[in-house]
């Protein structure tokens, strides 16, 4: 049976709705007694969106707003999940309502609303007197982190207004950059106290090819342009537009980013990657590695890499030093076996 639909137990709610129209009829009745699976009438009413029944139940003597169903989903959880704005408002007005309890999946009601983009519900929950805006879910993600990760700029702005919100919980900017959420990135860059380099946001955006986010981050003086080897990651994933931006940007160490990748690609005979990198100026294509070998020297060791070797030769690449330190410039081609 689908617990969301309530099955035939929906008739129980209908009976409650008709039998509880008058307050004096609740005396002597256990209003929290419900089905072993579907839970008490309040849970079923919230889940099915019976607004008038909810109002009657909340006025009943002895109502417990924190009892859940067999899955431990309480009325407030269901109200958020089903986007029952009025139900959330009414429940938050009840004495003893527990707003920080996590459901079995580890989410608080605020975290659920933030992740799902429910702006009005987030606002209602933020107005609750004892709300903990930094409460983590089971994966140690705060509501603000979830809103940033799932790209809900209005919710990000609302949560940032709450006194005491932790703007550095979970590398927010990096997570938004990874997903390419431009508006969220812009909001976070304007936020006081945020660590703009935590989690390497530029590297995250560069790797995924989010050109718009990369452009925004490159305009920010506080961003470390070399953190996380952003240019190298962009090149490894053939993000040409991003590579173009990073090579032209001030402060990017092109040699440190591209030379190791260039040598690695040649060493492994990665023809397409070598060809991709050769189109760019600004890095030393004859730079030697820690063994004193260049990209051409590595490629030329293997006959199967002959196409890569020829590509490097046509680009004017040359040999460096052998491991014994002797100059190897002018050494002949690989032996054709």
Topology:
Elements: H1 10-19, H2 41-48, H3 51-58, H4 75-81, H5 85-92, H6 109-116, H7 119-126, H8 143-149, H9 153-160, H10 172-179, H11 182-189, H12 201-208, H13 211-218, H14 230-236, H15 240-248, H16 254-267, H17 271-278, H18 295-299, H19 306-314
Helix pairs in contact: 1-2, 2-3, 2-4, 3-5, 4-5, 5-7, 6-7, 6-8, 7-9, 8-9, 8-10, 10-11, 10-12, 12-13, 12-14, 13-15, 14-15, 14-16, 16-17, 17-19
Keywords:
337 residues, mainly alpha, Serine Threonine Protein Phosphatase 5, Tetratricopeptide repeat, 19 helices, 0% strand, elongated, disordered N terminus
Structure description:
With about 325 residues, this protein is mainly α. Among the domains are: about 170-250, Serine Threonine Protein Phosphatase 5, Tetratricopeptide repeat; about 255-335, Alpha Horseshoe (Serine Threonine Protein Phosphatase 5, Tetratricopeptide repeat), CATH 1.25.40. The protein is about 45% helix and about 0% strand. The protein contains 19 helices and no strands. Helix 3 packs parallel to helix 5 (about 85-90) and helix 10 (about 170-180) packs parallel to helix 12. The radius of gyration is 30 Å and the shape is elongated. It starts with 9 loop residues before the first helix and ends in a 23-residue tail after the last helix. Mean pLDDT is about 85; it is low at about 1-25 and about 325-335.
């Amino acid at each position: 049976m689908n617990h969301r639909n309530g099955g035939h137990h929906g008739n129980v709610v209908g009976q409650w709705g008709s039998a509880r129209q008058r307050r004096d009829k609740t005396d002597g009745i256990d209003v929290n007694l419900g089905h072993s699976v579907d839970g008490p009438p309040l849970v079923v009413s919230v889940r099915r969106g019976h607004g008038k029944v909810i109002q009657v139940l909340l006025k009943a003597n002895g109502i417990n707003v924190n009892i859940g169903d067999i899955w431990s989903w309480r009325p407030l959880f269901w109200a958020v999940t089903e986007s029952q704005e009025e139900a959330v408002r009414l429940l938050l007005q009840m004495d003893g309502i527990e707003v920080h309890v996590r459901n079995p999946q580890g989410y608080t009601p605020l975290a659920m609303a933030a992740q799902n983009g429910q702006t009005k519900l987030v606002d209602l929950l933020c107005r609750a007197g004892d709300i903990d805006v930094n409460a983590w879910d089971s994966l140690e993600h705060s509501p603000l982190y979830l809103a940033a990760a799932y790209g809900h700029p209005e919710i990000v702005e609302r949560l940032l207004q709450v006194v005491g919100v932790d703007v550095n919980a979970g590398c927010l900017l990096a997570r938004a950059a990874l997903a390419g959420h431009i508006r969220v990135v812009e909001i976070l860059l304007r936020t006081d106290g945020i660590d703009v380099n935590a989690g390497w946001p530029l590297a995250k955006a560069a790797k995924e090819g989010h050109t718009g986010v990369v452009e925004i981050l490159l305009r920010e003086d506080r961003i470390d342009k070399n953190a996380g080897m952003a240019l190298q990651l962009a090149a490894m994933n053939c993000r040409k537009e991003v590579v173009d931006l990073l090579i032209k940007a001030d402060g990017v160490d092109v040699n440190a980013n591209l030379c190791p990748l260039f040598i690695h690609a040649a060493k492994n005979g990665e023809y397409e990657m070598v060809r991709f990198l050769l189109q760019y100026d600004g890095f030393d294509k004859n730079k030697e590695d820690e063994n004193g070998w260049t990209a051409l020297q590595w490629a030329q060791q293997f006959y199967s890499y002959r196409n890569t070797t020829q590509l490097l030769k046509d680009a004017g690449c040359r040999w460096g030093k052998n491991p014994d330190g002797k100059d190897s410039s002018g050494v002949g081609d690989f032996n054709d076996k």
